[in-house]
Amino acid sequence: MRVFIAGVDGYLGWALAQRLAARGHRVGGADALLRRAWVAQMGSVSAVPIAPPAERLAAFTEHFGAAMPFYPLDLRDHDALGRALAAFAPDAVVHLAECPSAPYSMIDFWHAESVQSNNVTGTLSLLFAMRDHCPQAHLLKLGTMGEYGTPDVDIPEGFFEVEYRGRRDRLPFPRQAGSWYHWSKVFDSQNVAFACDLWGLRATDVMQGVVYGTWCPADPRLSSRLDYDEAFGTSVNRFCCQTVINRPITPYGNGTQRRGLLSLADSMQCLTLALENPPEPGEYRVFNQLRDVLSVRHLAELVHRAALECGLTARIEPVDNPRSEAEQHHYNPETARLRALGFTPSAPIGEELRQMIRDLLPHADRIASHADRLDPTVRWRPRRPGGQATDQHLTARPNGRNPE
Ligand SMILES: NC(=O)c1ccc[n+]([C@@H]2O[C@H](COP(=O)([O-])OP(=O)(O)OC[C@H]3O[C@@H](n4cnc5c(N)ncnc54)[C@H](O)[C@@H]3O)[C@@H](O)[C@H]2O)c1
């Protein structure tokens, strides 16, 4: 299969390119290298060093025996995207190319606008480009479990059966996102579903849980990034980075918030299953992609235990929750579809966490040198009106649009 990965330079994308190539698929990719710039803007670095794009591509060719056609473009450059899709002629397009950070989108108007315009316009550009250049290709689009919020009822896979005044229908399950970023993913979901209905495109919209884990093959040029700053580091990845530099593990609030999670290896397995079992033309399907549902406090305890097993000293110190979110809530998402396709979770979470800590330990100095980036400073609700950003890394506007 010919698979075009939009966002191939990112955390998931670089790992997925290798997993697919190892299974004999032909991989091409696009990326505007924005994630590298966003993390630098937050004053941070990837804990695992990542090679420049040219070195990554050279390593890919050496290890997988074929060069990866790479298109250094922004998805919103619609003409360039169209040319790339026409040249590569994909059977499937994986769309990862979005800004994935809720805290980044909550900094101020400029960041909210930049995340929503990047994500919503980029997806719209891709939908039109697929219509015009590869209408038969399967779109595998990454959404997030955060689109659903935390409703007080079970969460089905995208749709629910409703009966009202004697009539029945299958309707999209209501979305109750909790950040400007998560709302951008909701808008994407609506647009992708509409494009399938309107033009007969086929798509899988993946409501993915929080991903954790390192991707560190023997050749360091093949390593995937792993971030720990407050905006681009996800909870478990941040907790593990905290333990390797002997800083306390800091769950937000009372830690009873529950989330769906899965390891990077499991995410790769699920995305491969979705690609190798495509939907029918015109079909829009939704997969809830997660392995475990755990509370943030339980996660902190699991990381704490893994750290002790790796010979580290670790401690847990909760901090004020900077987000606006329910801490006590029901949470029961359905996850039948990927399991029906054969998803079998890989290593138990404790094993994954120990491996992650072992992969991070050689980079402890690198993490320690940016340790101040771990502390949350972005607040969902400002403490005083107009009093949002004070951290120097947050006051600069994205895309260089600073006032004169
Ligand atoms: N990592 C997680 O825990 C997680 C969980 C749920 C959903 N997701 C979703 O999965 C996808 C991938 O996540 P990730 O963690 O790999 O993020 P990432 O930031 O590491 O990767 C995204 C890549 O896309 C590129 N990109 C962004 N906007 C672009 C644009 N307009 N044009 C071209 N390239 C662009 C970035 O430079 C980056 O390399 C995202 O859509 C994210 O919302 C991630």
UniProtKB/TrEMBL annotation:
One example GO MF annotation: UDPsulfoquinovose synthase activity
Superkingdom assignment: Bacteria
Q: What is its EC number?
A: 3.13.1.1
Note the InterPro entries from the entry.
Epimerase_deHydtase, NAD(P)-bd_dom_sf
Keywords per UniProt: Hydrolase
Residue span, NAD-dependent epimerase/dehydratase domain? 3-288
**Region annotation (Disordered) ranges:** 372-404
Segments passing through the bilayer: none
Q: Does the keyword Hydrolase apply?
A: yes
Which family is annotated? Belongs to the NAD(P)-dependent epimerase/dehydratase family.
The family database entries (PANTHER family) matched by this protein are listed as:
DTDP-D-GLUCOSE 4,6-DEHYDRATASE-RELATED
| Protein's recorded name | UDP-sulfoquinovose synthase
